Amino acid sequence: GKSGYDHYMLKEIHEQPTALRKCLRERVSELEHEITVEELATLECSGSVQFVACGTSYHAALYGARLLRENGISAQCFLASEYDAQRIPITDETLVVGVTQSGETADTMGALRMANQAGATTLVLTNVVGSSAARECDHVMYIRAGPEIGVAATKTFVSQQAALALLSSELSGSEAPALIKHLRGLPDKLQHVLDESTAQAVAEEFVDADAYFFIGRGYNASVALEGALKMKEITYKHAEGFAAGELKHGPLALVTDQTPVFALVTGDTAAKTIGSIKEVEARGAPVIAVTDRPAEVGQYASHVLEVPDAGPYLTPILANVQLQLVSYWVAAQLGRSIDKPRNLAKSVTVD
Ligand code: F6R
């Protein structure tokens, strides 16, 4: 059941601290300053990494690819439906990583099969034990989020991001004590976001807008894409997410005093994103800043959704939770079919 929540989506948003704890259990040890993912014990990666995924899982993969590059591993990210192993250079040193909650998505399965035929090693990050991807790939890492009923992916996205942080550490052999500390603290910080969020009030204020924009840089660029996708899926409203630097290359033409802009302002990209905020503010747009530094950012924004600082790699995971809540409350105000949005299915088994 929904345990007293109106929708599975809200229940699953609130299950995220537990989902994270399950994902990290026995994999992150503070005492030994170690990250150990047992399933990956026999995985070797001497070449480059290619991620393949769709939808929300693609946004997690974008985040993961960036983390790997940060750790010195060459990594690219592909939409599974656009992946073409015949034309993308693959050697037997290439590791192709599928990110798929269900483990059944046809496009992702197709890409993984292509990669396998081309001689790559395949790994899947999935939530479903015994799924097609889990059976067919050379290696499997479970994200351990637990069953997700709502069609819109929420807790599985957070678990994918955490699993990708573990993977980046495993593949690079870099066990940054700061990352370990921040990973262990993440479930409590996420709980804090859920307890203190003012997203419902923000949603109520902007429920009548025709369009919403989401901007961020670096790790927050993938969060911006995810924020917009969630908004589209469950509210049926127009939403766009993009890397903040792209604003002035086109989308700025759409910005008026009627377009709320959600700006993700965390980490070392904050100063540049504040620059982007000024660009939209000058057009009269209301700016909702999602940030771990309200004192610095507050003066540029009409609203602030605060998140605790969890370090440069993980704070964006918390920022995303604020956006999940905004979308949820906009959709709830509009009386949408939140757990089963029109035209969408939980598992897309046709390509
Ligand atoms: C969005 C959503 C979809 C899925 C996509 C991939 O909320 O749920 O975009 O992320 O269909 O599904 P999986 O991860 O099962 O491969």
TrEMBL record:
Residues 36-177, 202-341 form the SIS domain. GO terms for biological process: carbohydrate metabolic process; fructose 6-phosphate metabolic process; protein N-linked glycosylation; UDP-N-acetylglucosamine metabolic process. It comes from the Archaea. Its main location: cytoplasm. Keywords: Aminotransferase, Cytoplasm, Glutamine amidotransferase, Repeat, Transferase. Its EC number is 2.6.1.16. It catalyses: D-fructose 6-phosphate + L-glutamine = D-glucosamine 6-phosphate + L-glutamate. The keyword Transferase applies. It is found in: Cytoplasm. GO terms for molecular function: carbohydrate derivative binding; glutamine-fructose-6-phosphate transaminase (isomerizing) activity. GO terms for cellular component: cytoplasm. The active site is at K346. Signal peptide: none annotated. Homodimer. Catalyzes the first step in hexosamine metabolism, converting fructose-6P into glucosamine-6P using glutamine as a nitrogen source. This is Glutamine--fructose-6-phosphate aminotransferase [isomerizing]. It comes from Natrialba chahannaoensis JCM 10990. The lineage of its organism: Archaea, Methanobacteriati, Methanobacteriota, Stenosarchaea group, Halobacteria.
